Amino acid sequence: MLETEVIGRVSEGRRDEALALVVRAFKRKVFGLALSYLRDRGAAEDVAQEVFIKVWKALPQFDGRATLSTWIYTITRNTSFTALRARRESVSLSDPEVLASVEAMDAKAGSGGAELEGEALMRLVDRLPEKQRQVVTLFYMQEQSHEEVAAMLAMPIGTVKTLLHRARERLKAAQ
């Protein structure tokens, strides 16, 4: 079992090897969870990297009371929230970079094509309530199972299924 192996390596003073096991097992899921909160690939990559630094520092304190995945997803969720708060404080429409980004998106929207259909779908997904958007992003775009989404978002599987159903209904109605 991964948890036993990680705890064993940490207790032997082989924390770097333990982290390598953790990164291999969780890098995709950590990135997917961060992306579901931040909706920005670059920011999600930064958060994922920060998460694994935090995990590396905290590995000696991991005692197995919670599962390794729950512990890592909690760190990811908290780090994502911190990044969101920092971004909200620093971004405004008067910022020249943000203005240029908005103008570029508007120009792209006028160009048409198949990529516009994907963008239109993403805009619809972006309009979903936060929990529905996160579940849709993790389940469909990051291809996580119902169980994995439930663990990542710390909610029951039934809630994940309900949120997916409601999101699909909203997306159908919006088309």
Helices and strands in order, then pairings?
Blueprint: H1 2-11, H2 15-38, H3 41-58, H4 68-90, H5 96-109, H6 114-126, H7 130-141, H8 146-153, H9 157-174
Helix pairs in contact: 1-2, 2-3, 2-4, 2-7, 3-4, 7-9, 8-9
Give me some keywords for this one.
175 residues; mainly alpha; 2 domains; elongated
Detailed description of the structure:
By secondary structure, this protein is an all-alpha fold. The chain has nine helices and no strands. The protein is elongated. The relative contact order is 0.11. The model is unreliable at 108-116 (pLDDT under 50).
Q: What's the number of helices?
A: 9
How many domain modules? Answer: 2
Shape: elongated
CATH architecture of the largest domain: Orthogonal Bundle
According to CATH, the fold-level topology of the largest domain is Rna Polymerase Sigma Factor, Chain: A
Tally of strands: 0
Helix content: over 70%
Distance between the termini: 46 Å
Largest beta sheet, briefly?
Answer: none
Rg, Cα atoms, Å: 19 Å
In what range is the share of β-strand residues?
A: under 5%
Q: Mean of the pLDDT scores? A: 82
Provide the CATH superfamily of the largest domain: RNA polymerase sigma factor, region 2, helix turn helix motif
**Secondary-structure content class:** mainly alpha
